[in-house]
Amino acid sequence: MYDVAEQVVQVLTGPRPLPIVAAGDPVLRRSAAPFDGQLDAHTLAELIAAMREAMLAAPGVGLAAPQVGIGLRIAVIEDTAAVPEVIAQARDRRPQEFLALINPSYRPVGEARSAAYEGCLSVPGYQAVVNRFSAVELSALDVSGRALTPEFTGWAARIVQHEVDHLDGTLYLDRAQLRSLADTASYQTRWGGPSLEPARRALGF
Ligand code: ZN
Q1: Hey, which residues does 130 pair with through a beta bridge?
Q2: 202 C-alpha vs ligand 1 centroid, how far in Å?
Q3: Is 163 a catalytic site residue?
Q4: Backbone dihedral angles phi then psi of residue 80, each to the nearest 5 degrees
Q5: How far is the CA of 1 from the centre of ligand 1 (A)?
Q6: Pick the catalytic residue: 53, 97, 163, 197?
Q7: E strands, 65-112, where?
Q8: Distance, CA 75 to ligand 1 centroid (Å)?
Q9: Which residues pair with 141 in a beta bridge?
Q10: Neighbours of ion ligand 1 (CB under 5 A)
């Protein structure tokens, strides 16, 4: 019988940082199960700490439990990357404190959307442009079961939408403008600037 608690214990006794599952693994295409106490408080805290460690080691700014092979609606986010001010302004990217999100969902705040390059630890080596809501209100539980309803804007709103997508079996490429697809070297040398216009013109998206 499939026992997620046993599976988590197995993952936690394996190598660290936790290996990240790549696209092609069905766990990334399934809707994850709501967390409803399948793990005791200690195991839940240990899983979240291990997910944070894997996210920071990658390095990345978000990680969902299916990305470490666990089909539960749990994600972590944290963005401490030092980005140049011109990029921070263009992407509305400000430091995001560490948050563990349990059973997260969101609703858009307003109609505004913004397009930016993003990548995914489960699709290593590539970046593509995704159009996402500019602001969202998150609804989630924290690790002690308290309800959180913070609002996120800009880059943090992008991270939240990307992670909730993972819990629904959606990868960012499903929503990307595929003509923008760039390998990391090409992205860094050509398209990492504050404006998407040069990439739009040259790649045709
Ligand atoms: Zn991802």
Answers
A1: 116, 176
A2: 26
A3: yes
A4: -115, 10
A5: 29
A6: 163
A7: 74-79, 96-108
A8: 10
A9: 102, 147
A10: 120
